[in-house]
Amino acid sequence: MSALLTLLEVQPGGTADIWIGPASGPDGKRAYGGQFVAQSLAAACRTVDTDRLPTNMHLQFLRGGEAGDSVDYTVTRVFDGRSAAARRVDSHQDGRLLTTATVSFAIDLPGPEHGQRSSMPHDPDMLQQTGPAGPAPSMPLDEIDIRIADDTSSGEFVRRLWWRATVPLPDDALVHTLVAAYVTDVYMIDPALQVHGHSMKARSHRSGTTDSSIWFHRRVRADHWNLLESTSPAAARGRGVVAASLIDHDGVIAATLVQEGLIAERELPGAAETACAATSPDR
Q: Taking the chain, what is the end-to-end CA distance rounded to the nearest angstrom?
């Protein structure tokens, strides 16, 4: 099995509704956020009927995790109805709570539909393979083709990240959804810095995702080209928001994503000590 598929395959724990997510590695590195998103979703999916696909997921990053260690996922069965279900998933390493998520599920129902682009901005096969917007040592990048083509022609920074899995995937809608949830987290908060001429790669600011939400509209094929098109509508108080559409190769919007992330300025050396001295009651 590929490294990507192995990473997304959670295993039963010692008790009911406890699942173990494999470590990504390498040791000593911080775990990739997309791992928690995808493994939390995988654990939740293990506890619902297969006719109920995820409709939305909301996850809070509370602490960083260790890439070299496995992750324990505890699923709480919040609700089970005739056509819908809800789960809460908490992740832990060594007893420390790292993330908490809610996931909603529902059966497909007939109704009006919209959300398709009349044209796509690029032919991804003609773009250079760039990889992510920065280092990603925990991701099996030999199994994921990523091509970024940023655009500022409208006066707004738009990130266009094309991606596809390059390893054979089973014809299982859930597997493709898990791969999409895993890949689309990569440096997703970066556009909030790019608006101001900065980047997460430059490490000029303290940065990282704090909250992640995904609404799943249609099934995605992770082994075909998909476009994650994102912009940052607002930033303040050291945090920025990024909104994105996941669009398949035919222009159909498969998912909507929103993230909030930390984009705070780093303190200059000695700034903290100076501030403390200036406010000290002994001064």
A: 64
